[in-house]
Amino acid sequence: MCTEPKLTRLDRVFARLDREPERPAHIDVPRMTPHRVVLFAAALAFYGAIVWAVVVTSWLVRLDWQVMFFRPYQQWAEIHAFVDYYVVLGQRGPTAVMVAAWLGWRSWRQHTLRPLLALGVSLLLLNVTVGAAKLGMGRLGPHYATTIGSNEMWLGGDIFPSGHTANAVVTWGILAYLASTPRARRWLSALSAVTSLGVGMSTVYLGTHWLSDVVLGWTAGLLILLALPWFEPLIARAETWLLDLRDRWRERRAAGAVPVPPVEAPVLLPSRPTAAEEEIAAREAAHPSRSPRAPVYLAPGPHTARAERAPGTPTGSRRPPHTERTTRGATPTARPVTGG
Questions:
Q1: Rounded to an integer, what distance in angstroms lies between the CA atom of residue 208 and that of residue 220?
Q2: Among 12, 94, 156, 216, whose CB has the most other CB atoms within 10 angstroms?
């Protein structure tokens, strides 16, 4: 008899996903339509224009210096504490945890791994593209600027484009991207736009980024969201591969289950005799006793006829003598006749 293997928490999650193996029909997967392709091309051209404007030290760089000398954190010092907390909405660690928790619940309800996989792909694209641009252009931030009016490019910095802003656009925009209804998509798009705009302006207020850094961060995040439909086939294949891997792992666990023998009744072993009992047993073996007599109610031999039995009365009769009686076969004596 084989017992059922104990299910782990991961097994229960996948068992929940198995209740509806196909993606629900009401969930619309975005496709790379011509309209989206045009938006992607326009955003990519705008991205290149911002980079070029900074490289050639155009009017955009002069605007960066003017905002920096304005020092917003001194002009509106009363909101400094609030901005310090608000800018956390653009940090990758806290926002990824919050959005992953929400999308994990969505995966549980919709019985699909697509929301979590889409978040993973978007964060991977964000790290690769924005990280490469930061390291490639090496721009210094306002607090570390060396020459007034210069673009501060290729000096070993890592703030161009703004990572906080791009992360806010991607992590909050993915909620709108994965929305299941057009109304929810519109509301979430507006909410993510306001959130990412506030995060970008918070970094400018705190003086950690140039204004052009924030503009390029918005564009970088938008490019990732517009390019996600190109990765939908890859996401679908990854989901299928993960579920197949789960099935093979379950089969190996079931094949390696050790059979458990049936539970039998316990066998009572005889207890070891004591020294006194051993002495008595040895004495009886040395002096065997006579065979026991048969019970009194059992006849020791075959039954005999009543005539063959010994007389049941002792010697001499206890009955009173009767003179009138004669022995059987003898001639009775005549009784004397008496007169009446």
A1: 18
A2: 216
